[in-house]
Design goal:
Blueprint lengths: L1 E6 L9 H8 L4 H9 L3 E3 L2 E2 L11 E5 L16 E4 L3 E6 L16 H11 L7 E2 L8 E7 L2 H12 L4 E9 L6 E5 L2 E2 L9 E2 L8 E12 L2 E10 L6 H8 L23 E9 L6 E5 L4 H11 L2
Length: 302
């Protein structure tokens, strides 16, 4: 089945197919190479090399290669917020690792997606476009093909993907709105811990807006909205801890709060980007999970 189609115009008459690929499709050079060596280019329904020339009215079509992940399927609940032939967007629950690792080879989100794929008679390679820590909940993008993955990744590089989070932090955040622009690095290669590193750190920018301020039993709390301009590992957690407002429940970065919640109170609640194929704007939101809502109720005495 052809994924992308284009009908040659009078202006295209006499042009080679590879010229059409470069100028009439928004493909990366890497994807064009995949089309060439995968023999995925057709002219009027027939597989055709790129040096062939088109005539007005010719149908140029490109198929995507058949790919499939081979993770063992597992019955892991999925909260699917959006799905089509190119994308799957999931509201990830806390406590679930995104992708199998040496330390966590199974019971991951990838295993759950594999079962969903089989149950729905689908076949694609699972490509996570963004990542969330195990104990961070919220929206996660899965691309079903390399074109979709590359397109959204490029949008991220161009800072046109909007990623928004909400976090409950310790302390009364004084400024209503501000930006944290501090480089983040890994002080010890043998540790998962990250830190602000003026020398050797990668540029990291987090925009912060205070949504609410609360006090309970002499302890101040703030609910904040966060927009990421970069996406470093543990970026929000490191930035907030560094300026003195660690996330409630984040034991790695100094956030006490075990009486309120048993993980860091951080949730990726909003994603905005342009759909790679339809080119329509996509905006997905996910409400705060029950454990963060319960923590807020306890603080507010509701």
């Amino acid at each position: 089945m052809s994924k992308f189609k284009y009908i040659a115009t009078e202006e295209d008459n006499g042009q080679e197919l590879r010229w059409i690929l470069r100028h009439r499709f928004k493909f990366s050079s890497r994807f064009r190479t995949k089309i060439k060596f995968g023999k995925l280019l057709c002219l009027n329904g027939v597989e055709t090399p790129g040096w062939k020339k088109v005539k007005t009215g010719d149908l140029v079509s490109i198929s995507l290669p058949d790919e499939k992940s081979d993770f063992p399927p597992e019955n892991i609940p999925l909260d699917i917020c959006y799905e089509d032939d190119d994308l799957l967007i999931i509201n990830k629950q806390f406590g679930v690792t995104v992708h199998p690792t040496r330390g966590c080879p199974c019971h991951t989100l990838a295993n759950g997606i594999m079962k969903h794929m089989i149950d729905n008679n689908q076949s694609y390679k699972i490509r996570f476009v963004n990542r969330l820590d195990t104990d961070t909940s919220g929206l996660l993008i899965v691309a079903k093909n390399s074109y979709t993955q590359n397109h959204i990744t490029n949008q991220m590089r161009q800072k046109s993907v909007q990623k928004r989070y909400k976090a409950l932090v310790l302390g009364n955040v004084s400024d209503d709105k501000f930006t944290i622009d501090l480089p983040i690095g890994r002080p010890d290669d043998g540790s998962i811990h990250r830190a602000v590193m003026p020398v050797g750190g990668s540029p990291s920018i987090t925009h912060v807006t205070v949504l609410d301020r609360m006090t309970k039993d002499g302890q101040d709390y703030s609910l904040v909205d966060l927009r990421l301009e970069t996406g470093r590992t543990h970026q929000i957690r490191v930035h907030l801890s560094h300026i003195g407002y660690p996330i409630v429940g984040d034991s790695l970065y100094g956030g006490d709060g075990s009486m309120l919640i048993n993980r860091q109170a951080l949730h990726a609640y909003k994603l905005s980007f342009v759909h790679p194929v339809s080119e329509c704007p996509i905006e997905i939101t996910a409400k705060l999970p029950d454990d963060i809502e319960q923590a807020l109720k306890l603080i507010r005495n509701l």
